[in-house]
Design goal:
Number of helices: 15
Distance between the termini: 51 Å
Shape: globular
Helix content: over 70%
Largest sheet: none
Strand content: under 5%
Length: 338
């Protein structure tokens, strides 16, 4: 006779406890966050090594005509440059984790405060530039793709190729010549915080923002056009058209929506590039942002300032990529399950 046992009785063997799995989105974001931290550590190592390979003595340059043997040794010891390189790096990592990026050789100011003071100028320039780029690239890329092979498509492709080929400093000087020197409508240089005078901030950010925006738009247009063309040939788009849906509905709901991932990719890349790569534009327009700061720091061999600026730019780049990954997971749940 079968041994009948009441469920939950003393003779039952408890089933093994199920191990709770983390939500796919959480696993996806943790993986991306871990990868970003590893990349940031690699950036710190590479920058530290490359800076110390650059010829020139930063302490000697910082002292200038005030050089004496005693002041030279004192400044080297104050900045830890008399220690072995490996100890300097370990010390730098420890201080960086606590938010202390060192002290500038030139003016003796904390690097962290200097960078935070310059960040709003670069951030405002980058945001204006990416808005202008999106305003140009999204309609131009979609229009070009939907009118493939026509004259308007050829015009858009030619203009985007011209924008990719023209240096950004040349675009900046052209805008200064036209709108500042000839028409006298906008100032050619300087920066006013938006919190102090929004109107004057807008007048001064238009020219540099247009410069970076036009160059970025030329690159983004080509990617958006290619993304829309790839989606427009898929079966579900042909099916939507065969059902007699309005062209506007087909474009917005079935083409643009499915081309959103490549658009997010190129937008994130260009925003990060603008944040970390507008050195020439900031020099041309005397824009007191991170780019101009890095330019002057390299000329002065200011190790602490260069390391801090590059670290901040790399962190911003990784942060933007992480946010783009989050948008990926929101826009297409299949990505976080891959």
């Amino acid at each position: 006779m079968a041994d009948a046992r009441v469920a939950g009785g003393p003779g039952d063997v408890a089933p093994p406890a199920r191990r709770r799995q983390a939500h796919p989105l959480v696993r996806f974001l943790l993986h991306r966050l871990g990868s970003s931290l590893v990349v940031l550590l690699g950036v710190m190592v590479v920058v530290f090594v490359l800076i110390h390979l650059v010829p020139g003595d930063p302490v000697r340059i910082a002292l200038g005509t005030r050089y004496t043997k005693e002041s030279y040794d004192a400044l080297r010891a104050a900045n830890g440059l008399d220690r072995p390189l490996w100890l300097q790096f370990v010390t730098y990592i420890g201080h960086a984790l606590s938010g202390d990026l060192g002290t500038s050789f030139r003016d003796g100011e904390p690097v962290t405060m200097t960078l935070l003071g310059r960040l709003p100028a670069t951030a405002s320039l980058a945001l204006v530039g990416i808005v202008i780029a999106l305003a140009i690239a999204v309609p131009a890329g979609i229009w070009s793709a939907l009118h493939q092979g026509r004259a308007s498509d050829a015009v858009v492709r030619a203009l985007s190729q011209l924008g990719v080929s023209v240096p950004d400093f040349w675009v900046g000087m052209l805008l200064i010549t036209v709108f500042s020197s000839l028409l006298r409508l906008l100032p050619s240089s300087g920066y006013v915080p938006i919190t102090e005078d929004p109107v004057e901030w807008l007048r001064r950010v238009i020219l540099p923002g247009t410069t970076v925006g036009v160059v970025a738009a030329a690159i983004m247009t080509r990617y958006i056009r290619a993304a829309v063309l790839d989606v427009a040939d898929l079966g579900h788009v042909r099916t939507a058209r065969s059902k007699g849906l309005a062209p506007r509905v087909v474009v917005l709901r079935h083409i643009v929506r499915n081309a959103l991932i490549p658009m997010l990719t190129i937008t994130g890349i260009q925003l990060a590039t603008i944040l970390g790569g507008v050195i020439v534009v900031e020099v041309v327009f005397a824009w007191p942002g991170l780019g101009l700061l890095v330019y002057s720091a390299v000329a002065a061999r200011d190790y602490a300032l260069i390391q801090g600026a590059v670290l901040l730019i790399a962190a911003l780049f990784l942060l933007i990529n992480f946010l783009v990954d989050v948008l990926y997971a929101v826009a297409d749940p299949r990505i976080r399950l891959a």
